[in-house]
Design a protein that fits this description.
The protein has 10 helices and 10 strands. The protein is α+β, with helices and mostly antiparallel strands. A hairpin with a 5-residue loop joins strand 6 and strand 7 (203-212).
């Protein structure tokens, strides 16, 4: 089933989780604020909810690193201790009542807050898109504006049609998503490149992959028949039956692979290594209250994990901050 412009906005919105940015437009409004404003144009304003990934569910559990992870990064995340985690799964878009099986709920998101020894946290914000539709925060803003300027009765080609035609990575990225039968049966990707630093100072660019025990996707016809909240309702029930497990992995860049553009994936032939196992063993007691308090920042890193030259994590964090302040 083809996605509508509004569905793609949701998809896109999901990917750009956003942060405090130095990029400023001609009117001196930071691009991070412009992105949140554009999301509000597409979805409206819903007090108390995120501008993007408004609908979600929270669970808690733990992460334990694989033995080889510490050779890649000196981060305390990978020192072998059991690390408590808080995880939020979400639908794309800014509608708190979006049906879980609709095209507008794709791609789905997974945000992890690792509670490290000593009382600090580090965050990871990933989603079911294999790569980002555009290369920068400015282009993401422009995509959202194109969607907002393309109502159903707009003359063809619409602003959205024109944007998609001039950005071939966007339709390619959106074609990589579909509706899962459960948040627990979806594979999630870190679209941005980060840099691992080992104990001896060696640096390795990586992109994260969160792999479930099995991947199960629905056809559009199957998804349309599902109850509006089937993903949100399913996760607590699954965890009550047995813990939900994921394997955190890293795709390793080869020499010469670019790290700046999140819309350009590395070849599938690049080496993938195991970083550890994430286990969810308890639903949040009050998921709605918990997720309203949570702020996941893709730039909240530990020693041993650094930003690359990809600017999107900073933009994502800035936009998240703007959205968080507004929903408070």
């Amino acid at each position: 089933m083809a996605m509508t412009a509004k569905h793609l906005a949701g998809s896109l919105a999901s990917v750009v989780a956003l942060v405090a940015s130095a990029s400023v437009a001609a009117d001196d409004t930071p691009v991070t604020t412009q992105i949140v404003d554009a999301l509000n144009k597409v979805y409206g304003v819903h007090p108390g909810f995120r501008a993007n990934h408004a609908k979600g569910v929270v669970a808690v559990g733990s992460f334990k690193a694989a033995p080889g992870a510490a050779r890649l990064s000196r981060s305390p995340l990978f020192d072998g201790r059991t690390i408590p985690v808080t995880v939020r799964f979400s639908d794309s878009g800014g509608l708190p009542d979006v049906p879980d099986g609709s095209g507008g709920a794709n791609p789905h998101g997974m945000a992890i807050k690792f509670h490290l020894p000593g009382g600090t946290d580090t965050d990871m914000v990933i989603n079911s898109l294999k790569f980002f539709p555009v290369a920068s925060g400015e282009e993401f803003r422009d995509l959202l504006l194109a969607i907002s300027q393309s109502p159903p009765n707009a003359p063809k080609p619409t602003k959205f049609d024109q944007f998609m035609a001039s950005h071939p990575s966007a339709p390619k990225a959106f074609s990589t998503v579909s509706t899962p039968d459960s948040f627990a049966d979806e594979q999630y990707y870190g679209i941005d490149a980060f840099v691992f630093v080992s104990k001896d100072g060696h640096k390795q660019a990586v992109r994260y992959i969160m792999v479930p025990e099995k991947v199960v996707h629905l056809t559009p016809a199957e998804a349309d028949k599902k109850a509006p909240n089937f993903l949100v309702d399913d996760l607590p029930k699954r965890i009550d039956r047995k813990p939900v497990m994921f394997h955190l992995k890293a795709q390793l860049a080869a020499p010469g692979d670019q790290t700046k553009d999140p819309s350009q994936p590395w070849p599938d032939t690049r080496k993938v290594v195991e970083l550890g196992v994430l286990t969810l063993n308890k639903p949040a007691s009050d998921s709605l209250a918990a997720q309203k308090k949570l702020l996941f920042m893709p730039t909240q890193l530990t020693d041993g994990i650094e930003l690359s030259d990809d600017t999107l994590p900073v933009v994502r964090a800035g936009a998240y901050t703007v959205s968080f302040a507004r929903r408070q």
